[in-house]
Amino acid sequence: MSELLKVENLSVSFDTPQGTVHAVRDVSFSLRPGEVLAIVGESGCGKSVLCKSVMKLLPGTARVESGRIIADGRDITHLTEREMCRLRGKLFSMVFQDPMTSLNPTLPIGRQIEEAIQIHEPRIGRKALHDRVIELMELVGIEQAEERCKLYPYNFSGGMRQRSVMAIALAGNPKMLFADEPTTALDVTIQAQILDLLREIQQKLGTATILVSHDLGVVARAADRVAVMYAGKIVEIGTAEEIYYDPRHPYTWGLMQALPALAAERGELKAIPGMPPTLIDLPKGDAFACRNAWALAIDYEEEPPMFRISDTHYAATWLLDERAPKIPVPVGGKAYG
Fold it and tell me: Percent of the chain, pLDDT > 70?
């Protein structure tokens, strides 16, 4: 299957008064048509910046230092803002974290969806426009769409507002959808509904989706593949089954052990010790070494490459080097080295 999106060795930095923030460091990944790729990791690891880099929604202080972004067979790395405006909404679209910052509180929901449709179909007739609004609202699970399209954002619950934002994002029939922590402000029941909705949309429309989250447990029900990010880098990537049942990076082990479901079995919630490093002054070697109970001497000297585990599973840890000692894996009960 051909790749809809291919990111090659992308590095993105921000200039600040305190110094240069290396937000995304040498990241490579691909996205196939109709696939759901989850990007997970702690807050501040570069997940949102990576997505906004692809859509070129970064502020003026940001710069792409190296790498290429190839979307639908076209290199978009150096496109101008005018050229990107033609792609946003049709090639890719984004659902942001807080729907209340995406919606206009003074306009009815239906009118806001209409505006998104008219941007891509300026000559659409009035009846066709109204029918399309109702179709999109029903697609994202908003019942009684005829009545509710006249309501304002403050009339909707958090889950309904997030569904409205998804309807706006889908107005241009995009090939790719970026969902930046779309369930953060929602309770667990509504979280599950939104994730199931993302999967339904992917199945109905064939839309490829990149789902950003800090919670491995949240994305388990929706993702085909999972990429784990730490300190601006992807440290492990594989199918959902490989990441959940055969994780190989110590950081992934830590995220798995911190899941509340496992805490219920042990009677305690296990946290990853320490704090992520500052992205202004990164430590020498592996950025996770100071928090890694299994760190080797080389972790403090050299950054590990991506080791191949299978055709779909890769991890950047020196523990996968053939010279590394064998250790028991705390998640899954295996040993390797």
Answer: 96
